[in-house]
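Collaborator request, handled under Task 6.
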Amino acid sequence: MKWTVHGERVIYDSPWIRLALADVEIPGGERFEHHVIRIPAEASGTVIADQERGVLLLWRHRFTTDTWGWEVPAGRVDAGETPIEAAAREAFEETGWRPGPIRLLTSYFPHNGTSDATFHLFVADGATYVGDPIDPSESERVEWVDVPRLRSEIAAGRVGDGLSLTALLWWLVHEQLPHGEQDSQGIGKRRR
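Structure tokens returned to the collaborator:
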């Protein structure tokens, strides 16, 4: 069943976020205002994976939730930039490593019940160290995390960022592990 949208009025607007009230009608006739968050720019994130090193991650604090956690390099797609270009730029700026060949994992809407935000997830095959991150305020440290430790960090709740968690789990399931192949502990084996 598709809802009917009769209009939308903006309550707050900035280059980063817009809050609106949509005048909607659901099938059956009920009509009401629904809060909607509009995000003017899409976001891209990249799992930088290396067969020997593991995955390149950022350890950072998020003031909004007052939490520390591992994240993949990610950020806003700038005007005139494609999502894959943003993925490469953000990876380099935040880590100091230039990602190898990048390819799309998936794109999705992280909270489509209230927002039109769009996330694009990529994987890079390895990376080359260039130097310190361009923006050192992005994270406390940048570190290669091997796959067994990555699994432990995810299980321990130390990957709480939705974009990063989705990217890493997608990569583990669809890129890292062949379908149905598991080791003696029920953990999927590495593809190669």
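The cover message to the collaborator said: "DSSP finds three helices and twelve strands in the chain. Confidence is low (pLDDT under 50) at residues 178-192. Please let us know whether this matches your experimental observations."
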